[in-house]
């Protein structure tokens, strides 16, 4: 019968092309006798029936009254959409090439589904492609239409059976990009064969680094890494996503009130202001509804009749555990963004294919929906921010970034100002992966925004860089812990970054942050707020070895240490002391290692680092304790002043201007100490000496200045001994 070859395909048999010829013609003849029953308004049923019957019975190449009937079909299709049986009949007419290409093209463009697309219509169309009757332009247009309505197919089982036939069309240059996209959506592990990998690599050698082709090769490599020796870039720049005019038409049909199949995604046109009643649900409509494949939902309600658990019924965590082995990812991977249970599932199974499919969907959505969103419309910006927040929460939940978001963040930094979605763009930056291009791709455009924006944006940038550094270091520490316990590392870097590569990336990040921080402090008159965020960054930097197992020590520049040392805020001074204490602890631990261990861990600390730290430590102690700050500081950017110049200032007791008593950041504590100890006012600040000095130091420690306490206790004895 007409469906006999489908049974062979369903059984996995190879079907020769001549089998498609006879069956396709038979299907064409059968379709001419089918009575069309479109489910439309009563006024449109008869004209649509007449138009469809005309095209299904017209003789080859004789479109006498075609324009009139085609206008009827176009009017109904673009207003209300077409029912499944009409789409099946018209698609068969188009692919049989009985009409001229002008009519075939118009018919394809008006195939707007009102509900679902029957899978048999697609399989019949592919069988017509095997006859070589439709022109190459019609074939390209058909594949583009199929990609648009892919998630509206009522089933994909037979389409999966035709994987080998679809793969054959990769050799056509015009069809290749769209066939790659279609195969990307259809590929399963059992479809990956050696001969197909060889064909893809040959195509890559012939056509170069085509984005769609490289995405398919990367998917093959994830399924069968032993077959693919080609090095695939993790980030596929400028992924070719076909913009489809059918999508706009489907949106208009849905806005006109056409019923859509339960469980299929609603496509929302955000290029035009939506109705007020739908403003709060715009992100819900943009993200598809969680649903199983339509052919699964048509089965009986009993769960035992299907090997897969219907995702629509997944409501509790206990259901997830009970049906863990029966869950299959939906065809539309974007629906995972609205299901915490499925996010738990994808986080547990660690399916790289699923993550790659989700990344692919996000790339499409960001490019198609938000390519023209530049912040001109307040409603667009709200929708955009809401969607980005969902992506950010998903990344934080999975503890993994998406490469398409890295690309989007890079484009955003290059095109937009700091006032447009700044929080979201900076949040996306905290998930970029370490690479050699991180400076040129992200930091250079970020630096331009940084220096031309307000102090609050500068603080946000420093905070984002701190979060980015912590994520890199945390990933490294987990990998090192797994290696120490001989546990296979399940947190592989997407780019398989080596230790030296990570060290270089971290060094570039720290140096970049130091460079912009020094300039920003000068621009903002050494703001205490900005200095606080900068010191937060260096709290992480100071503990990279002991806390994160990274053999690297990078000291803050003098342009940060001295403003913090002379700060007017006790919080910043205490924070600096804590940082210097952690540096001392890490350097001491590194110094205790033997030479062989240093070589083994790739130690990136030299004698100059120890000398710089000792100089900074001596300056800090001279200021706070020994009252010799202006004499002993010899740093070019330090506070050393010759004695004759100090004398000319005529400042009384200038050498003790920055001790624990007279320091501007601690003077308030000193005054409070004297008022509490001597309410009658008999003691002044200059009386805090000897035994009272010791009482005052303990008083400071009790004020929560733990950083100051640890720093002084760790180094004051050594310095005092050397001074004496």
Automatic annotation (TrEMBL):
GO terms for biological process: CENP-A containing chromatin assembly; mitotic sister chromatid segregation. It comes from Chiloscyllium punctatum. The keyword Nucleotidyltransferase does not apply. Belongs to the CENP-I/CTF3 family. Keywords: Centromere, Chromosome, Nucleus. Transmembrane segments: none annotated. InterPro entries: CENP-I (IPR012485). This is Centromere protein I. It comes from the Eukaryota. It is found in: Chromosome, Centromere; Nucleus. Its main location: nucleus. It holds the Pfam family CENP-I. GO terms for cellular component: inner kinetochore; nucleus.
